[in-house]
Specification:
alpha+beta; Transcription Regulator spoIIAA; six-stranded antiparallel beta sheet; eight-stranded mixed beta sheet; 2-enoyl-CoA Hydratase, Chain A, domain 1; globular; Pdz3 Domain
Amino acid sequence: MMGASRSVAVLVGLSACAATAVLAREVVTPPGGSSRISDSPKEVIDQTWQIVFRDYLDTTGKYNDERWRKLRRDVLAKSYGSSKEAYDAIRGMLGSLDDPYTRFLDPREFKEMQIDTSGELSGVGIQLSLDKETKELVVVSPIEGSPASRAGVQPKDVITAIDGKSTKGMSTEDAVKLIRGQAGTAVKLTLRRKGQPVELSLTRERIELHAVEHQINTTGDGLKVGYIRLKQFNANATKDMRAALKEIESKGVDGYVLDLRSNPGGLLMASIEIARQWLNEGTIVSTKTRDGITDVKKANGRALTTKPLVILVNEGSASASEILSGALQDNNRAVLVGQKTFGKGLVQSVRGLSDGSGMTVTIAKYLTPRGRDIHKHGIAPDVAVKMGEQEAQRLKLEDLGTRKDSQYRVAESTLVKRVRTAGTVEKAYNPTSANVPAATSVAPAAQSNP
């Protein structure tokens, strides 16, 4: 990326400002090393331009090097009387790329992004994304236990209005500003679900994001199943998962069901570290920039368990969830049960700019160990099981991971077969099948099973 001296933190997710991100603050100089623009609004414009010029991975076909150079000359030739005018120019510049994940964040929005992974927030508990095709605001998933979850908000709901204001052309950042607010106040959402309008009035709350819940279930023939629900890859997820695994292992379970349904993502390193808790050897994920493969993350021989594993996924499982489930599936470490995942596989770098604002820029895409491109395609389960709409509406939070949960029942029966036939994970998977050569080229199997 830019240099070894910068400290970075990486996010992967579809929350308010969503996506895989590298959070960094840096000083940027124009191409060729010329002196930087001294006028403050123009300095921020130029910093933004240069970040795209150096790092942008064109996924839309709208970027042209010559046109981008001309755009710099045009925007810097103008005078800007305020930061707002400069910000509008930046948004227009980035808008020409037609990439919903490459966008500008004013100082307030930049702070909001940091709140999204801190482990708590104030609002109604909705994870948002901008649809890649329609540009509509789409619910990735409601946060478990939040006002949105209790009111029945569902993945793939389209938010058409907020307090009566149409969301047409609205960014995720603008939507978040309207939805978030002081605890105890109300917000009215108009949704579109399967072509039908749904109106909800929600009361905002302070929401704490507990990453992991776990329990031990016993099957009809006496096998003990460790059930772990990972709700978000936030700052607490790695330690919470480690604690849950150690506690369940001490109880002598026969295998595990890891529930990633409606998990919208979060911290990239959390997904990597959690993968290492389940996987002793093999590649976890690789990133591919416009210059090729730049980074490959591997297991480090420190798995906390080698017992059979089944992972539950659905259309709300996104980004970091797809990294984790794809890594364990490609290494034959886990069987995936449920529905195809969301399909968010672009990598955004989130950069702090000189005036406290920031931006996200698409710099890469991530690939599963076997070289599968997650973006748009998602991760297909090994055992496809769809939860019906009536069941989804009827099922209570406390019913997840129980016999009342039809997808869990299939996951449990799949695990029982795996325990009976494989015995231990070491006999069931070959970690050497996931390696760097596999990550650098798409094998025929990956093309036929995206």
